[in-house]
Amino acid sequence: MNCPNCQAALEENAKFCTNCGTKINEENVAHVATSAQHTETAQHVPNQQEQTGDYVQQGKQISKQYWNFILQAMAHPFEVSKKVREADKVNGMITLALFSLFVPLFTYITIHSLSGGYLAPTFTDVVLKPFIIFLIFFALLIAVKFGVAKLMKANVSFIDVMTRFGTLMVLPTAVAMTAVLFAILDSYTFSSILLLLAISTASMASTATIFSLKTKAPATSGLDVYYGVVLTYVAMAIILLLIGDSILGNLINEMQRGFYGIPF
């Protein structure tokens, strides 16, 4: 218990402050205690509006950085991939995640539109599950590239490999997004061509990543870049056989379920 006037420490049943002589009563003590409690609470409880504002500012900053990253990667993809920084890792992750989303989203929109609504595949099975499978595929592919980089004696980290690959995937992701937009507009032929172009350029990005990694390796020692590309494509084929079967099987099951559910 403290004096309400001078804040000196008091005994429990004190009637007067021995320091300043102020008369002590229960109301004064209660008022001081309540004020101290409110002050302490105000200091420790975070301001929710300030937190929300911080999140908004962080979101704006990430969006601005990603937009600048896209412009640079679209203009000079290979050169930018050779000069990636630690700050670009988030941009690389975003790009790979978007590509993983756009491809199954295109499939969902196309099936739903072409069937006139008779085939109604679930969003979870046709978009979300393949999205996760694509992320797993990219993680395995990056792991293969990292192994190839070590065989080439390139001085890179796993995150560096992912960032370089994500940088080179900006163009395929932009094309895939355009394919989705045209699919929404019911331009199925053109959107299908764009999707094939996105997948083709994604394959080129995979190859270009090996050459980008080679710039961090000695010129005369380590695995030759040609064999690095071969190993990458062999590993990619094996991964696609394992994961692609899961995606196609799930898609066929959904289409059959929708087909047999059509009322005749």
From TrEMBL:
Any transmembrane segments, and where? 90-111, 131-149, 161-184, 190-213, 225-244
Q: Which UniProt keywords apply?
A: Membrane, Transmembrane, Transmembrane helix
Record's superkingdom? Bacteria
One Pfam family this chain carries? Zn_Ribbon_1
Q: Does the keyword Plastid apply?
A: no
Segments forming domain Zinc-ribbon: 3-24
What is the protein name stated in its UniProt record? Zinc-ribbon domain-containing protein
Question: Which species?
Answer: Paraliobacillus quinghaiensis
High-level lineage: Bacteria, Bacillati, Bacillota, Bacilli, Bacillales
